[in-house]
Design brief:
- The chain has helices spanning 27-40, 61-72, 91-95, 97-101, 132-138, 148-161, 172-183, 207-221, 237-247, 270-283, 291-298; strands spanning 6-9, 44-47, 49-50, 57-58, 78-81, 105-109, 113-114, 143-144, 164-169, 191-197, 226-232, 250-253, 260-262, 265-266.
- Helix 1 runs parallel beside helix 2, helix 1 runs parallel beside helix 10 (270-283) and helix 7 (172-183) runs parallel beside helix 8 (207-221).
- It contains eleven helices and 14 strands.
- The strands form four sheets. It has an eight-stranded parallel beta barrel, surrounded by seven helices. The chain has a two-stranded antiparallel ribbon with strand order 3-4. A two-stranded antiparallel sheet has the order 7-8.
- Strand 9, helix 7 (172-183) and strand 10 (191-197) form a beta-alpha-beta unit.
- With 306 residues, it is an alpha/beta fold.
- It binds (5S)-5-amino-3-OXO-hexanoic acid and zinc ion.
Length: 306
Amino acid sequence: MEKLIITSAITGAATVPSLTPYLPITPKEIADSAIASAKAGAGIVHIHARRPEDGFPSSDVELFKEIVQLIREQSNVIICITTGGSTLMTIQERAAVIPKLRPEMCSFNLGSINFALHKSLPAIQTFKYSWEKAYLENSKDFIFKNTFKDFEYLCHLIQETHTKPELEVYDVGHLYNLDHLVSEGQISPPFHLQFVMGVLGGIRGNPEDLTFLLTKARVLFGENNFTWSVIGVGASEINLSTMAIHMGGHVRVGLEDNIYLKKGVLAKSNAELVQKIVDLADMLNREIATPDEARKILKIKNANLA
Ligand code: KMH
Ligand code: ZN
């Protein structure tokens, strides 16, 4: 079995600061957390930016630039920058960072879905920042828009910049969307599929759903034409990670997707979540890929460390 690639998703846009005091917010906090994740065993860090003063999700290219520079001073971890951004951004805003920074990887969301966050509301007694409550409440009526026109836009960008997409699959139809893009020649293998399971609006984090997605991907693309990884959003993180380690897939963890180390215990850092996967992989006899080994496994072309 090839070595295990661990992705650490540092801060995201779905976790609001009031949910955990350990969420990195400023460029320095985000970069430090990414570096610590890499030291713990992450081969990839998935990066969003936040407004330093109040943690609001941001598409400001200057913030991303600062984060990338700070990481690069200390680590050769693969940097995967979001093009998912947050609920309130256009695809142009979300993807602006790609031609500017030409990262090795970027996320590529493969379909529109409901992306509801309001179930987090009861967990928060006091809101730290004024935007958070409405942000969570409004997500009830929010569609995370990723249309075929958006795909076209992103496909051009990743072709121009040779950026390897982290292809985010929230439901089975998203695999068919990818198949359509392949048939039109807009994108070509080898793919890195990221099965995102447990978002309210997408497929749940059940074991049979993971095997179903994987089976469909094998039928559509052929098993040698893609690598795959799983995100168990929320409570399913550790169970789905265990399955992926055992089945030859890869794993993404991090405060973007899950804030708990175990039931009722907040993770104090992203590195702590990465360490848990490293320990699990050790128990299951799977070695961890370094960033350079991950570059080979994923066949990354734009390995310019930018
Ligand atoms: N937070 C994940 C569920 C993106 O950045 O493009 C999805 C995500 C989207 O990572
Ligand atoms: Zn993300």
